[in-house]
Amino acid sequence: MASRQMEEIQRKLATLGYPRGANAPAQSLLFAGVERYVLLEWLFFRLLGDKSPFTQQNWQGDSMDRDEEITRIQHLAEIANFLGITSSVDTEAIQGKGSYEERVEMVRLILDLVEASCYSDYPEWSVDEQLAKDMLLLDSIAEKQAQIFSEECKLFPADVQIQSIFPLPDVTELELKLSEHSKKLTNLQQMVQDLASKYAYNPNEDYAETESQLRASLETFLETVRSFNLIYTKEIHPWTHMMEVPQLHGFGPAANRLLEAYNTLLKFLGNLRSLKDSYAAMAVGTESMTDEPSSSVSKIIVECESALTFLNRNLSVLSASVTREQGGLTI
């Protein structure tokens, strides 16, 4: 990217007629040295024109001692600040500071300014003349201010509807309306307080009823799971060790009911954690209105999880049997 920009810079220098463009290496224009100082001086005085407040120095040769270099850098830094290229008298900017891309960008910016000044309407430009023209423009606007901003000035066509500007209401009228609205608000607040005093409001009422229903449902579910665990421990678990590859058809007609119960219990196991999270979110910031501890439902959920986990730990054989049964039915 930077190399392409340097090619563009060299092309613009040739277009502008820079006398040392053919002999100056591209890299020497970006780093401190005679070539960079000569280029900046040439560009700056192209921008300043004939009525420049700065005197162009006649530096002899391509070599100079340290004092001459410091003087030349200071002179260029003052010109750059005058032109607005730098915000202060920055000698480091003249010598080339920052990254490679930043150095290229500075040279490209100055070149664009010079190129734009070549195609301006008034190539013989000076700061004093431009300031004088700007002042004349401001004076003419000030003299015709009444005409420019008068009501007779037609800014819109005749068919465009212009809304009228209504005058601002009086402060006394606004204060009167504010007083009326304040009275209405006070009356509404009094009505709300009267209603609240007649009816006891319990924000936890719905929560207590829901908690009671949830506890009853979970207790019933826990009893079912425990019963199934008992059946599994006494009947299914011994049967799974009686044969090398147990098959569900050994249960006879009860196999289908066993499959349905197993699938239902697996769904319960998958959704029980969501139920626990939902209850915890519902209970946050709400006080229980029952005499039982607020964590009673949480305890039942934990017991259900424990019972289902115990059941699921021993159902791997049934899972394999379900797969074989479904495969046999498909065939």
Topology of this structure?
Layout: H1 2-16, H2 34-48, H3 66-83, H4 91-95, H5 100-118, H6 127-143, H7 145-148, H8 171-198, H9 205-240, H10 254-283, H11 296-313, H12 316-330
Q: What does this 3D model show about the protein?
A:
This protein is 66% helix and 0% strand. It has 331 residues and is an all-alpha fold. The longest helix is centred in the C-terminal third of the chain and has 36 residues, at 205-240.
Please tell me the total number of domains: 3
Sequence stretches where pLDDT stays below 50 over 5 or more residues? 285-294
Helix content: 55-70%
Write down how many β-strands occur, each being a DSSP E stretch of 2 or more residues.
Answer: 0
Report Rg.
46 Å
Mean pLDDT: 72
Principal-axis shape equals elongated
SSE run: HHHHHHHHHHHH
- Termini separation (Å)? 68 Å
* Structural category: mainly alpha
| Strand percent estimate | under 5%
Largest sheet: number of strands, sense, barrel closure: none
The tally of helices reads 12
